[in-house]
Amino acid sequence: MRLQRMWAIFMARNLEYFRDTAAFGWNFLFPFLIIGGFAVLFGGSSFQENKVGVFPCPDAIVHSESLELPPAFRSASYIEFVGFKTQAEGLDRLRHHKIDLLIRQGTTPYAYWIDENSPRGPLLEKALLASLQPAPPENLLQKNRIEGRQIRYIDWLFPGILCMNMMFSSLWGVGYVVVRYRKNGVLKRFKATPLTAFEYVTAQIASRIFLLMFTLCVVWAGCSMLFSLYTAGSVVDALVVLFLGSFCMTSLGMLLAARGTSEEFSSGVLNFITWPMMFLSEVWFSIEGAPGWVRTFSKMLPLTHVLEAVRGIMNDGRTLVDVSGNIAVLVIMTGIFLTASALLFSWNE
To answer: Residue 287 — φ and ψ, nearest 5°?
Structure first.
């Protein structure tokens, strides 16, 4: 072992990194953008996973001080209250694990609902009971159960995991790989063949979609056998939506890979695209109660529409007609991404 040779390689790699100004600048800029985005998203307040729905309320964003609830409960710092105009609206969010407990404000007894399958529902129920001590809770509270089939948390979570896996595989499987091919000179060699850019882009997208659908089917079948997953709607309808989602995401990945030769820069851009979708498309947690512009921005993300449609089919038994709005948005986005990637694609730049 020679330290001189190791030092030479160490310095060469460092100089390569610092001379790649795009990747160098992006690695500093990306953390600031993510932190700044979350600071704006949560308005400087701490993020609360414990969400309690309250009705009747005119607005989704409520101030806990103005709620007609037990003072000790409404002042709990670990709870975020979300307003709903009607009981039906609140129960729909409770069934889909977007809130953990629903309560009617006003005079006693306070009527409340919890989803027994929710991880945080029983904990919030105990907090509500404790806030009324030492008065007998049975005189002040009226517990109700959700009518109809309850959606298990794992059945709600699984479509999100499936779609998140699809997003990462689509974007990284195309966006990163094509940039690496360009950097290594593989694309330049393809340019010397009769292969056209359209044929190359189409083949790349088709290959990625085939691998994605194969992977999704294997994962879905395996998880269904292991965890007894329940699918309320048609499996074929869900696969159609996943196919369209894969097409849209892969087209976006091809657009990001249309130019550029730096793997590190493309890695940063892909992270910048995937992180907001992962947090704002309700893969892991609900953005119920977030500011209106956050929910509007969420509607502009392709993963949001894929997830809404797949959850509607798997959890609520909806059909392709019911989710046609989400499908239309995905088709339009796919057309835009494909057109832009075809116009911008370069073999060697």
So the answer is: -100, 25
Give me the residues of the chain with pLDDT under 50, please.
none
Strands 80-83 and 51-55 turn out to be: parallel
Say how far apart CA 87 and CA 104 lie, in whole Å.
8
Phi then psi for residue 43, to 5 deg, are 60, 30
Residues forming a β-bridge with 81: 52
> Within 13 Å, how many C-alpha atoms sit on residue 103's CB side?
28
pLDDT for 88: 87
Q: Which two tokens mark 282? A: 């309700």
SS (H, E, C) 276-309: HHHHHCCCCCCCCCCCHHHHHHHCCCHHHHHHHH
Please, which residues bridge with residue 53 across strands? 82, 102
pTM (2 d.p.): 0.74
Q: In whole angstroms, what is the distance from residue 54 CA to residue 60 CA?
A: 9
What are the tens digits of pLDDT across the range 289-310?
677 788 888 889 999 999 999 9
E strand or H helix that includes residue 55: strand 51-55
> Given this model, what pLDDT does residue 27 score?
63
Q: Are 215 and 169 in contact (CB under 8 A)?
A: yes
Phi then psi dihedrals of residue 23, to 5 deg:
-65, -40
Written as six digits, the tokens of 332 are: 């339009």
The arrangement of strands across the sheet holding 141-144 comes to 80-83, 51-55, 101-104, 110-114, 141-144
pLDDT digits (tens, 9 = 90+) for 82-131: 888 888 888 888 888 888 888 888 877 888 888 777 777 888 888 888 88
3-class SS of residue 132: coil
